[in-house]
Design goal:
The protein has 404 residues and is mostly helical. The chain contains 17 helices and no strands. It folds into 2 domains: 184 residues, MFS general substrate transporter like domains (Growth Hormone, Chain: A, Up-down Bundle); 206 residues, Up-down Bundle (Growth Hormone, Chain: A), CATH 1.20.1250. The protein is 82% helix and 0% strand. Helix 1 runs antiparallel to helix 2.
């Protein structure tokens, strides 16, 4: 039996994507318990995050080529099974080495999914409502992250960190089995060799600009994710728990509103402007930049929280549209490779670098100034989205002609 309905495919892959982000963030909620039990330093605990991100970035490229060449469904199901099994196996960790390996394996599994699933979802929907579908799919980022932080911490407190890993890993194995019922992939007989494929993808001007725009956004948002709770703690005297809860609630609400509004706005505007995805994304980033700066400048906590909520809503407008733009300008035989290249660049230039750079800036100029400087990246991202409009129609036409 196959899952034929596009909405059913979206619902299943949304559920898997939520679990993807739960598994990704769970370990950070459990770190204090893990450190106390395994006696880990902050440096070794932080390396667990580095292990995941490094493997995730590097594994995406070869996996994406194999998926484009031989079909994506097995890789989606296999990736979900691998990261779920790896998450559960962390509960059996006897020391730092085995825990480190489990997080690296989570990175491999999630690379299978992150590089492949967006295009798989997009191809079930016509261009007229593709941005909305991808925006719904992207809702998993704020929802899954919040569940990972809040639910993981609660489960760890009640059940212990080992059982928390078991609890989160088990559902993923069931969802992986359901993924085997996804529809057959389109024919992938014209997938070029890896080097040629990635050269082709990177040779699309719109793709390059969209990717650099995503890196600029990820630089800022990745830095905010690490440092905003600390900012609330220092600037307004909130407890660590309350600061984290406040920022988490703002991110979930802003992420949900922004993701849904962005997809709806892009699809509504598409009839008049084929490059609607880039207009909505660029406008959201440019409008969100001064609001993010205001959130860091206001001295009233309610006002600062309201400004940050408005900023995050605008910044999340691009979650679906930018992915839809990537789908529009690449042909089906290279789309997974396009998303793999996008993943590598946005994390390498984005959230792999910004937390440390903001920390350095904080040491030298203060945390507020360091975060305000990071806001400039949002303006860069918005400008790049609008610059990409110049070549979008030509690149999209070439992708359509190649598919004919």
């Amino acid at each position: 039996m196959r899952i034929a309905s596009p909405r059913a495919v979206l619902a299943l892959l949304l559920a898997v994507n939520i679990l993807n982000y739960v598994d990704r963030q769970l370990v950070y909620a459990l770190l204090p318990l893990i450190q106390g039990d395994l006696r880990l330093s902050d440096a070794r605990a932080g390396a667990l995050a580095s292990a995941f991100m490094l493997v995730y970035m590097l594994a995406a490229a070869p996996i994406a080529w194999l998926a484009d060449s031989h079909g994506r469904r097995p890789w989606i199901a296999g990736g979900a099974a691998l990261w779920s099994a790896a998450t559960a196996s962390a509960g059996f960790a006897v020391g730092y080495g085995s825990l480190f390996l489990s997080r690296a394996a989570v990175g491999v599994g999630e690379a299978c999914y992150g590089a492949i699933s967006p295009s798989f979802v997009a191809e079930r929907f016509p261009p007229s409502n593709r941005s909305r579908a991808l925006s719904v799919f992207s809702m998993a980022i704020p929802v899954g992250s919040a569940l990972g932080y809040a639910g993981g911490g609660l489960a760890g407190q009640i059940l212990g960190w080992r059982r928390a890993f078991f609890l989160v890993g088990a559902p993923g194995l069931l969802l992986a089995l359901l993924c085997l019922a996804l529809p057959e992939d389109a024919a992938h007989g014209r997938t070029p060799p890896p080097t040629a494929g990635y050269r082709e993808v990177w040779g699309v001007p719109t793709f390059r600009l969209v990717t650099f725009a995503g890196a600029a956004m990820t630089f800022a948002l990745g830095g905010f994710a690490v440092w905003m709770p600390t900012y609330f703690h220092r600037a307004f005297g909130l407890s660590v728990a309350r600061a984290g809860t406040l920022f988490g609630a703002i991110t979930v609400l802003g992420g949900l509103l922004g993701s849904l509004l962005g997809g709806w706005a892009a699809d509504a505007l598409r009839a008049r402007s084929p490059d609607a995805d880039l207009i909505v994304s660029g406008a959201g980033l440019l409008a969100g930049m001064p609001l993010a700066a205001a959130a860091l400048s206001l001295t009233s906590l309610p006002s600062a929280a309201a400004a940050l909520l408005a900023a995050e809503t605008l910044l999340f407008l691009n979650m679906g549209p930018l992915n839809a733009a990537i789908v529009s300008v690449t042909r089906i035989e290279t789309r997974s490779m396009a998303f793999a290249a996008n993943i590598f660049v946005i994390h390498l230039l984005g959230d792999a670098a910004s937390p440390a750079l903001i920390g350095w800036g904080s040491d030298h100029f203060g945390l507020t100034r360091a975060l305000l400087a990071a806001c400039a990246a949002l303006g860069v991202g918005g400008a790049l989205c609008l610059f990409a409009r110049a070549g979008f129609c030509a690149d999209a036409a070439r992708a359509l002609e190649a598919a004919a």
